[in-house]
Amino acid sequence: MTTPAGWYDDGSGNRRWWDGLQWTEHVVTGRPAPGDESTASEPTVQEPTASEPAPEAPVPAVPITPLADAEPAPFVPPYTLAGQMPAPAATASPAGMTYPAYGGYPAASWPVAPSPQPATGVPVVGIIGLVAVVIGVVCACFPVIAIAGWALLAVGFVMSLISLFLRGRKWPGITGLVVAVVGAVLAAAVSFLVLATSSIAENGDSPFAAPGDRPSSEGDSSTGREDPSTIEGAEMVPFEELEVGDCLPLVEYTDDDVIFDLPVVPCEQPHTDEIYLIFDVEDGEFPGDDALGVTASDGCLAAFESYVGVSYDVSELDYYYYQPTKSSWNHASDRTVQCILFSYEEVTGTLKGANY
Fold this sequence. Notes:
The chain has six helices and twelve strands. With 356 residues, it is an alpha+beta fold. The strands form four sheets. It has a five-stranded antiparallel β-sheet with strand order 6-11-12-10-8. α2 (124-140) packs parallel to α4 (171-205) and α3 (146-163) runs antiparallel to α4.
């Protein structure tokens, strides 16, 4: 709906011609008195300038009779003159967006979707990962369940890492990663110490090699025992480096001795023992000290006559052997037996082919 053409108060106390679409430059100064029909019907028109075309024959404005006790309200057309346009009134929308109002129409308010708020909850994955890491660290410190502990520790580490990429609080994931790294180092150190302590304790309880029933020297009334490393001309040789023909001085060992090597002397030097056979027993589970002793003794006896020249039953010599212990069998894969001839009197030279 549009306002018809006519003379209307433009808000400045003057009347201006409205052509139905916009204000023109034709102005009538002064406001007619109430009831003054002649003034309203025959307004004095301000002549247009030469550059302006003469307006078409205007239709006289119909005056509006105001109320007796009130000033007539000025007409506000839907459009105003350039330069007289009031500043647009901004209206805030519920979401904070404003849209200006023009031409007397109310400002538009359009609903705007609120921006998503950051999640404030704790992701379940992070909590589960943290719990898995803690349990894994504890289990990894015990050698019996260390494998399960390390597996659980790895799962907890991955879950803690995934939780950092989920919406929600990050502290469970960060805590899980820190505990996983520190706990892995701690568990590795504890496992190493436990294994090292167990190995030392087991090796300390059992010698590297155990001697068989070694015959005692007749007339030996010594109460003390000489340190093998102090014997003149002796060289301490580990069991794995002993060879057939090595000569050994007389050394009395006790059941409490830890034997890792033997003293070897030149055969031209007086001695009582000589290695005459070295062989390996059958591989497999440790058979036990007694069963292994029987196997070692049988093997040494079978090779006695071929080395000495006479059978064991008629010989003046005796023999004994060194066999693997359970510790050396399991931890050093030791399967070697050393067979040793023994003379009750000191001899010089080799006992091979002694024939007595």
